[in-house]
């Protein structure tokens, strides 16, 4: 049931813009037999030192794409999510949760986390979190698991995703719990410095370990990062269907209820008397707080919650002596399966995700890149950071077609600030464009909220709109290397932005001749799309 729900939950077309760059970097790693440590992916900072915490994931995913294409990527999606939640269920079993409860909780958690199920390095991080909790719970259950067994997990995490610090937070929670329970220093504390020391074995040294803290201290409040959807707080109005509220509210409530039951019984062991679990309280506080403040942590919350919520629910529903016999296991399994299917159906009913195996090509500037290749466009490109991955995958290592920003918003702090100002202010855009000496502007459609660069370029006679479709537009300078393209291919009437579109719409109603000319340009747009 868990496997089917998890696989069904993530079987929607890929639309994430980042995975193209992940594929490219993976390809370069395999071709060069080395991890690039210099910026090779955008032109303004080309050759500068670069830190890529996701290199391990990229090296892993490239052979899957190379051998199986889209199917290879889906094999990773299916395999990673099924393995992650299967391990989370195994951890719940270690904690004493029996029956179908862990399966239902895991199915709901998989559904809740599906919005984070793109081909991204956090899929490895989620798997590492599940493995770490299983190891620590096995140790807590009396299994002979060495304290240092988590060190390889932490090393893999350091080399695949910037969120490795969550692994140390998890380790610390269990170390505190074990220290208090056993009334002596836990051997798990030894795994912390050893894990950090082993974590230094990466292509970027101590910089990789420092990166999440550097971001938190210095970059977190930059405007460009506060506008990234996954870094913003959860919007509950669009997340009520998917099970996230059940995790974010249900886990704390269950943990507090368990704590209250234990306090009422004076902490005396016996049938139904829950053990005080400080590790759960610490992890619940950490993961719920992180998730409420940032969408990107939903997947981590889902994984961490499964074992504890399963155990807490199993204890809460445990029957005392003399209670009626429970329903047959087949009946309980059927009820749990129906509940999981209903939860999945509820989420799908309000989702914009396109069901199926494939790539949602309308999310990428495919035809625009075809036009760039066909017309020989090269120079200093301007682009939005979120759209840099696909052109980079198409054209790298061509130095004349590198993006202005890659998927990580790579660049100097001044460049990022100037870019944000240029989105809304025509004078700021002109100053920015001249300072950076852009030759070509590759803009995505629809434009990001509040962005007016297409309107600014429509109004600037030194730029020509030479390509237009539903996914992207291309402007080139009328003077310079692309002057011939501008003279031959410029749209005379149809704009790229919204400011002139309404005026043009009103004008064509009154003027049949103008309407015919606009129609011809729109038909050209359709042909090139």
From TrEMBL:
Record key words, sorted: Membrane, Transmembrane, Transmembrane helix
Transmembrane regions: 154-176, 188-209, 243-260, 281-309
Species of provenance: Eiseniibacteriota bacterium
The protein, known as: Uncharacterized protein
